[in-house]
Amino acid sequence: MEPQPGPIPAKMNPREEKVKIITEEFIENDEDADMGRQNKNSKVRRQPRKKQPPTAVPKEMVSEKSHLGNPQEPVQEEPKTRLLSMTVRRGPRSLPPIPSTSRTGFAEFSMRGRMREKLQAARSKAESALLQEIPTPRPRRLRSPSKKELETEFGTEPGKEVERTQQEIDSQSYSRVKFRDSARKIKPKPQVPPGFPSAEEAYNFFTFNFDPEPEGSEEKPKARHRAGTNQEEEEEEEEEPPAQGGGKEMDEEELLNGDDAEDFLLGLDHVADDFVAVRPADYESIHDRLQMEREMLFIPSRQTVPTYKKLPENVQPRFLEDEGLYTGVRPEVARTNQNIMENRLLMQDPERRWFGDDGRILALPNPIKPFPSRPPVLTQEQSIKAELETLYKKAVKYVHSSQHVIRSGDPPGNFQLDIDISGLIFTHHPCFSREHVLAAKLAQLYDQYLARHQRNKAKFLTDKLQALRNAVQTGLDPEKPHQSLDTIQKTINEYKSEIRQTRKFRDAEQEKDRTLLKTIIKVWKEMKSLREFQRFTNTPLKLVLRKEKADQKADEEAYEAEIQAEISELLEEHKEEYAQKMEEYRTSLQQWKAWRKAQRAKKKKRKQAAEEHPGDEIAEPYPEEDLVKPSPPEPTDRAVIEQEVRERAAQSRRRPWEPTLVPELSLAGSVTPNDQCPRAEVSRREDVKKRSVYLKVLFNNKEVSRTVSRPLGADFRVHFGQIFNLQIVNWPESLTLQVYETIGHSSPTLLAEVFLPIPETTVVTGRAPTEEVEFSSNQHVTLDHEGVGSGVPFSFEADGSNQLTLMTSGKVSHSVAWAIGENGIPLIPPLSQQNIGFRSALKKADAISSIGTSGLTDMKKLAKWAAESKLDPNDPNNAPLMQLISVATSGESYVPDFFRLEQLQQEFNFVSDQELNRSKRFRLLHLRSQEVPEFRNYKQVPVYDREIMEKVFQDYEKRLRDRNVIETKEHIDTHRAIVAKYLQQVRESVINRFLIAKQYFLLADMIVEEEVPNISILGLSLFKLAEQKRPLRPRRKGRKKVTAQNLSDGDIKLLVNIVRAYDIPVRKPAVSKFQQPSRSSRMFSEKHAASPSTYSPIHNADYPLSQVLVRPFVEVSFQRTVCHTTTAEGPNPSWNEELELPFRAPNGDYSTASLQSVKDVVFINIFDEVLHDVLEDDRERGSGIHTRIERHWLGCVKIPFSTIYFQARIDGTFKIDIPPVLLGYSKERNMILEWGFDSVRSLSEGSYITLFITIEPQLVPGESIREKMSNMLKKFESQEDEKLLQATEKFQAECALKFPNRQCLTTVIDISGKTVFITRYLKPLNPPQELLNVYPNNLQATAELVARYVSLIPFLPDTVSFGGICDLWSTSDQFLDLLAGDEEEHAVLLCNYFLSLGKKAWLLMGNAIPEGPTAYVLTWEQGRYLIWNPCSGHFYGQFDTFCPLKNVGCLIGPDNIWFNIQRYDSPLRINFDVTRPKLWKSFFSRSLPYPGLCSVQPEELIYQRSDKAAAAELQDRIEKILKEKIMDWRPRHLTRWNRYCTSTLRHFLPLLEKSQGEDVEDDHRAELLKQLGDYRFSGFPLHMPYSEVKPLIDAVYSTGVHNIDVPNVEFALAVYIHPYPKNVLSVWIYVASLIRNR
Amino acid sequence: MAEVHVIGQIMGASGFSESSLFCKWGIHTGAAWKLLSGVREGQTQVDTPQIGDMAYWSHPIDLHFATKGLQGWPRLHFQVWSQDSFGRCQLAGYGFCHVPSSPGTHQLACPTWRPLGSWREQLARAFVGGGPQLLHGDTIYSGADRYRLHTAAGGTVHLEIGLLLRNFDRYGVEC
């Protein structure tokens, strides 16, 4: 027997009871004779049953039943068997107490007791005797039939029992009884001998294992043995009670004989016929069964359960969702299922805890996720998540821009914007006749009227007023006493104030309505009179006034009532006011009275005091003013108020006797035909007909399409009805319509621009409403016919008063929408193109569909939408949105400015951020990799932090700090400070561009490919092999070029070959101020003459030829290395020495880019070596030489390294920069004249030096970035005509093909980064008037002055950081504002000045030494060409050999560009006649005429007068600074200032300025000598343009004046600043050292 | 404050059906990592193998990181592209691999995959080139739900990476 499937413990009790009842019934039915005993028995049995612990399991019952199945069995035996069977089945531990209980239960029963004793005895016997015996297999064999039987008997039972419920027990028992009956009916046969146990019984007896002691596990085997062996005994005992009947022995024997159960059963078969009775099949009617089932089963109803049943008594259902709590979405369950469940629960478990507050079954939110967590079997149609979407891309030609960045761009899409332009209406047009003007006005007014009428605000306000009055009335009603009086009063007051407000509004509205109506009528009347006057009509407009009569009486009543109401209200108000005023009056009166009293008292006192101290009276102040006696307010007069009200009503309201007027505008009128009109009108109409209008559609400021040109209708309406489909790729930036009007066949004129809004993404074609956009034009049109024109005053009156001025205006009706693609998807550029806002946060909310994507960016809109759509704030799905909104709306809430990407990062960090940032090593490494200038190519970063000095960063940090701080001490005036800042910004932007260009590699940058020799080269070289060897004819061999990669410090040397110099100033013998030379001065002359040679000192003055005039030597300094030549002699020395200077690249970075940006300059200084005899005693002359060497600075040449680098070598003669006055030196012409052959050179003034400079080994100059830059720059936007730009490219390409080395410039970049055609920069511009006034008649002098002025503007190369790559050209006014610029700006300004002076002038682009590529100015004057250097102000003749300009690339005039296509480009050898096309290729020619480009320059330059006071102040400051500096430079010596000399010098500097440093030397010297004759004097004035203080200091330093260490030296320093217009300052510094002659 | 040097090269790729290959690579790290020097991403040249099917790039990688934590250990990601005879480029595979975490030299092989696309796209790819590409490149190395993609296997990218770690032991990371 198997345990029943899943019996519930709770059901166990009923089951047990049931079993008991069954047995009872069974007993009743039994036909045993011994009824009474049995009854007793049953009672007895009931008792122990009840005592039985509930642990009794079904198994037990089953076994019990098996007994019960035996109809005749002795009842008393049952407990035992049951117990036994129980133990068999359940194992030893389950039934501990039973034996004892049963024992006590049966104790009184004698027979039982006897039996037990017997059994006991038998047991003990058996135990003793058969302890060792092994159980025979018999009982086991017996088991199988029993099993069968059991199955047959009870097979159906368990199933039935499961379904049983408590209620059914009765019926169940009934059926059970029946069942038993039937079973019994079959079985009773073998029971014929009544005393015998039935077969069944016997079988049971044998098959059961008797385990009486369930506790003791040891006893179990014993019991088994006993059971196996003592069958007979047991049987005997068992048989005993029924033994009263006979045949016991026989049965016994039979059993013993049978011994085997099988035999027994076989035996049974033999007698089957006797026992078996055929019975009909047991059948229960379907009715019965149904009945039964109905009783057994419970079928819950499908009806909806009313809520009250589900809830506790008197509880209203509560809906949490309505209360704002988040409840989640319930899982989907069919309604009927739910009902069934509810019914069942109500029935089964009436506790009702299954139901929630809302009366529904409690349910968790739907646990089903919206998407499967396992990959679905994808079919192609299935949509893939957006992030994982792949996009089919065509194989594309690789684009090289931005290549090595892995990124995924937006999908390029073709999106479409539909622009529907339906028409255009002019609200004013020049061709409007007066009538049209009126008609337009009328139409407008009528529209307004209609709009107002529709709104009908007056009515609304009237109603409101009425309602308010009613409310006040009811509020005052005493019938509502339940509210406190206070609140009533309060509300009434509120009402009243509102009434006041509303009344005011209503009156205003009514008045407006009325005036509008009046104006309409007035305009109409005007129109009518106009039509009458001009005797024709132009417009079909017609106004009809419809009168609506109202019931006059009612009207009047209403009117009167209204007035009365108003009056009463006003009265009330006034009363209140009056009361208030009265109150005020009273208090003030009180005050006044009090004051008077006090006053009086005071007076009295004063009187007394005055009597006592009569003198004090006057001093008594009157602190309080006399209070005026307040006057009582006037009470209001009802009549006055009434008067007022009535007046107002009459003004603003329709009077009751007036009918309501309703205007109606119609187009029913007829227009007078042409032949009846006067001429002027006809011509107007003709004109209108001639006009046509079209619209251009501009997308992102580019014209994409235009409408057809439609003639203007007589009603000034144009119908287009065109739809433009714009295929676009990007999100549109702007959408513009341009209205063009064409008159006749003339070119169209732009009337106006209309900006259309870009539609929201929700607006798609078909849904877009037509909108009207107004436009207006500011053009002025006067017409000679009836048309009133535009922007022109006209009048309707005959006398011309009341003038009107109207502008052309109109409306375009259009609609713009996104097109819808084939598959219904709107062709809208993705949101990401507009802005990548908080897309992700809003992904789930479908806000997009409701407010449009553009709304998402608008927080307010979003918040509004959230409020409207009642987003559940507790729904976790909406959390991001809600937070966003709350942040956006409240504003004050805390907005975290971070979010955590890696959540547990902090916990697992090794170190904190600060510590990481503190690491000096990391910082150094990082800065190095960022190529920060200070750390670029920094070598060997230490491994440990501690090894890194803190000061490494000092410079860098200082620079960072100072970036935004302009040092005012360096820039003395603020203007220059601002300019410096601006320039800094410009420079940074240029550098950024440069950096971008640097990353742009060409193939040639990466791969150096030797050119494959073609046949001609090959042939030539072969030919060369066969050439005769000519060892005596040396050939120049090209130096090997070295690429910059494998270079290191010390590999590169700068070779400076100083060949010779010309015209070095010579010393001048000092002449004392007393004509006779003093001793010392003679000594001086003697000394320096005597020391090198044996010339007699006496000849010094007399024989200039024999004297060594100067002993110059050259000192070259570069990168802190100084080399100097030997000392040569004479003014035309020849050194021919090669100096070798090492070159070190910054930070050891020898890359091309780094070398290009080297800013170092090679200084070539020329000194005169002066020997002074310091011998005190003449007598010692023979035995020793005591001289002091002094070096006097004569001049210098500066050559930037970048020029050397780019030019590879510099070879030429340079002008030495010599100060205008060199004290003690002179350039003696007469000397030169002595040497006749040198006289040619005297043509040019100044001294010259011949140099040859190169770098060893030769560096590959690195293809200049100019080319790349120019490619880059082409991408800059330009406002030039596309054609022109193409032409410039072509021109440049052609030029570059012919002469790749010649500079050709057509377009330049202006300061805002736009490409501008170069000729636009040239335009005559006025020089400062001040300069023109100096030499009014001398054009040449003026030109020089102007050139000087230009050169005084500080030079500041914008190319300084990367040699000659990127030029930004500023216009002349910008240049003058900035007060800084490079060659081009100087040249442009100078050229413009020359043009304005009436000269023929060109901008000359070419190469010069030492500047490299530069711009000069070429002028044509009196038959010769002059070349001007704009930065120095010098000019040279064309054939001047010392002209620094070495070759000429192109000339630029104000209207053309000429490229030099001559064979030579040296200015000496070329012809400057640009009219000859064979020599000069012009840009604009016959094929491409000059289009008349307007200039980018301003109309004229405005010059402010310079501030003299500021200049003077600056002068003082500079002087002070320089003096301090000189003292600083002489730390070991005392620096004495000779004040007398200083003042002399200061006096002298303005003269120098005036004469521009020329022709003053002699006067100067004489003057000085006169004043300071006793001093040996050496010094010179320096002249510079002023930009900053630092260059001035450097210049003074470089002269080395401070180096004199003669003990008694004195110094003099004077500064003079001459201000020119526009704050251009010319700075003169005079430094001198004086040694007193003894 | 620990430092990691990643020095090595992208040797090449093998097993691709296309022949002229180049590779865009990048290294992705977590927020705790700071690049001290080196280039984070790059692109190799196009290699057309003459012998064998292995394309050799020998593209150097030299990076120096500082880190304050182990999270977001650097990972390399690749996009292998092929260039056809018309000079058009198309995707041949995506792949990523972590930089090894033990110091020393490592030979890495990074298998790649490419999105498959619909049959039409496959057909188009077979005949006219092109092919589906990921819209968002970071799906290569992040992308928790890549399972939605249908991919085809590409070849393998071979790497040789030397790793130098510094100061990890100071923070209790043994390596």
Automatic annotation (TrEMBL), chain B:
Question: What molecular function terms (GO) are annotated for this protein?
Answer: gamma-tubulin binding
Top-level taxon? Eukaryota
Task: Report the subcellular localization.
Answer: Cytoplasm, Cytoskeleton, Cilium basal body
The record's section on InterPro entries has:
C2_B9-type_dom
Primary location class: cytoplasm
Checking PROSITE patterns in the record gives: C2_B9
Cleaved signal peptide residues: none
User: Which UniProt keywords are given for this protein, alphabetically ordered?
Assistant: Cell projection, Cilium biogenesis/degradation, Cytoplasm, Cytoskeleton
**Annotated Gene Ontology cellular component terms:** centrosome; ciliary basal body; membrane; MKS complex
**One Gene Ontology term from the biological process aspect of the record:** cilium assembly
Family named by the database record: Belongs to the B9D family.
Task of the protein: Component of the tectonic-like complex, a complex localized at the transition zone of primary cilia and acting as a barrier that prevents diffusion of transmembrane proteins between the cilia and plasma membranes.
Q: What is this protein called?
A: B9 domain-containing protein 2
